């Protein structure tokens, strides 16, 4: 056993799968085992809310907007009493903290604004929802220089625009989405030109050419592809070859590099490595067709399966819950019971919380590092066919 991950469960067999699964769901008695932990996390979110101070982190990533997003999802999927009120209360607090400095969904103002539009629309306050959509669009118009990756930059803003449109069809016009697609594409083209790269789109964050979902090219390409506003020549001349370069440069193990220069094949987590590529490869299969990318997505899930039970802990950003979403994405795409079985074994693993947490998160209640992310995952396992990582567009 390595000191990075635990030995994986047995490979899929019909007999083992029957322990966990009933059709395309978890067996009800298996799912019921999560109820105590779900209740514990819900109580934890109440404790956390009581502890909030005016200067507490309000972002989606590791602040209280992540708790709001979790409870909003719980409300939408389970109608649990009280969750919608929590989401509204925390979202209102976050809206008072906006600065206009950052545009991304996870770390910037776009998260609280996009959620405010969706929450008000769900609450049948259409006029308010429209106002928040306008504020979200103005945020982009007024923003000063930004990063480009998902966590902090314009790709994260593209996510926010699309998130709103999943609730309110057409609320953000295609011309607006296209404007930011061009901003992101142009940055990649200019960087490639400047560095005389043979790869047509080059991005960097903090002076490093990251490849993964949070800070890197994989996350950026995912947001471009799901926008629906890239031309055929951009698709085939720029996005496709850039993706193919990421694939060619995989480690011999099949894992994906965390950055251009990194030879270290250590990280298998959503933010760095194979798990963050599964959604991208599945989407690329859908957009490009031709059957090239789907087997690669499946290979990426095999890497996660071998090395995904992280010693680090349970989080969705760099832990077991986030890695389980690789299997869920593949299951949604292929209806493969093997992939659902894999997710189910991770579900079972997560029920050991907190005994196998090798590294205590700095923000233990948060969505991306802590309890809320695990709560998000456990809640979604009630219906794996609709489960999606919280920066994914279905
Ligand atoms: Zn992470």
UniProtKB/TrEMBL annotation:
<dbReference type="InterPro" id="IPR007822">
    <property type="entry name" value="LANC-like"/>
</dbReference>
<protein>
    <recommendedName>
        <fullName>LanC-like protein 2</fullName>
    </recommendedName>
</protein>
<feature type="binding site">
    <location>
        <position position="271"/>
    </location>
    <ligand>
        <name>Zn(2+)</name>
    </ligand>
</feature>
<dbReference type="GO" id="GO:0031179">
    <property type="term" value="P:peptide modification"/>
</dbReference>
<dbReference type="InterPro" id="IPR012341">
    <property type="entry name" value="6hp_glycosidase-like_sf"/>
</dbReference>
<feature type="binding site">
    <location>
        <position position="317"/>
    </location>
    <ligand>
        <name>Zn(2+)</name>
    </ligand>
</feature>
<feature type="binding site">
    <location>
        <position position="318"/>
    </location>
    <ligand>
        <name>Zn(2+)</name>
    </ligand>
</feature>
<dbReference type="GO" id="GO:0046872">
    <property type="term" value="F:metal ion binding"/>
</dbReference>
<dbReference type="InterPro" id="IPR020464">
    <property type="entry name" value="LanC-like_prot_euk"/>
</dbReference>
<dbReference type="GO" id="GO:0005975">
    <property type="term" value="P:carbohydrate metabolic process"/>
</dbReference>
<dbReference type="Pfam" id="PF05147">
    <property type="entry name" value="LANC_like"/>
</dbReference>
<keyword id="KW-0479">Metal-binding</keyword>
<comment type="similarity">
    <text>Belongs to the LanC-like protein family.</text>
</comment>
<keyword id="KW-0862">Zinc</keyword>
<dbReference type="GO" id="GO:0005886">
    <property type="term" value="C:plasma membrane"/>
</dbReference>
């Amino acid at each position: 056993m390595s000191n990075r991950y635990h030995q994986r469960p047995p490979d899929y067999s019909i007999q083992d799968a029957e322990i966990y699964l009933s059709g395309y769901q978890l067996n009800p008695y298996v799912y019921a085992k999560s109820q105590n932990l779900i209740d514990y996390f819900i109580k934890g979110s109440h404790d956390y809310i009581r502890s909030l101070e005016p200067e507490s982190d309000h972002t989606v990533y590791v602040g209280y907007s992540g708790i709001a997003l979790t409870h909003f999802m719980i409300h939408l999927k389970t109608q649990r009493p009280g969750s919608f009120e929590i989401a509204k209360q925390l979202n209102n607090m976050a809206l008072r903290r906006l600065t206009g400095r950052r545009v991304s969904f996870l770390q910037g103002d776009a998260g609280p604004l996009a959620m405010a539009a969706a929450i008000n629309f769900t609450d049948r306050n259409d006029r308010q929802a429209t106002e928040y959509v306008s504020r979200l669009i103005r945020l982009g118009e007024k923003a000063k220089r930004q990063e480009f990756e998902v966590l902090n930059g314009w790709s994260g803003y593209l996510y926010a625009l699309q998130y709103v449109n999943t609730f309110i069809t057409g609320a953000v016009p295609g011309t607006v989405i296209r404007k930011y697609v061009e901003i992101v594409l142009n940055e990649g083209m200019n960087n490639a030109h400047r560095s005389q790269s043979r790869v047509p789109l080059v991005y960097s964050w903090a002076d490093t050419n990251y490849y993964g979902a949070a800070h890197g090219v994989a996350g950026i390409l995912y947001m471009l592809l799901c926008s629906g506003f890239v031309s055929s020549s951009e698709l085939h001349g720029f996005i496709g070859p850039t993706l193919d370069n990421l694939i060619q440069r995989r480690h011999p193990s099949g894992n994906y590099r965390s950055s251009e220069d990194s030879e270290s094949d250590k990280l298998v987590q959503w933010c760095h490595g194979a798990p963050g590529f599964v959604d991208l490869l599945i989407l690329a299969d859908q957009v490009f067709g031709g059957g090239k990318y789907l087997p690669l997505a499946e290979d990426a899930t095999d890497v996660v399966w071998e090395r995904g039970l992280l010693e680090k802990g349970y989080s969705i950003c760099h832990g077991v819950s986030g890695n389980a979403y690789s299997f869920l994405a593949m299951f949604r795409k292929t209806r493969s019971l093997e992939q659902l079985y894999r997710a189910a074994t991770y579900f079972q693993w997560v029920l050991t919380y907190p005994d196998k947490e090798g590294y205590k998160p700095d923000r233990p209640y948060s969505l991306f590092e802590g309890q809320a992310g695990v709560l998000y995952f456990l809640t979604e396992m009630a219906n794996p066919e609709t489960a999606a990582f919280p920066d994914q567009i279905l």
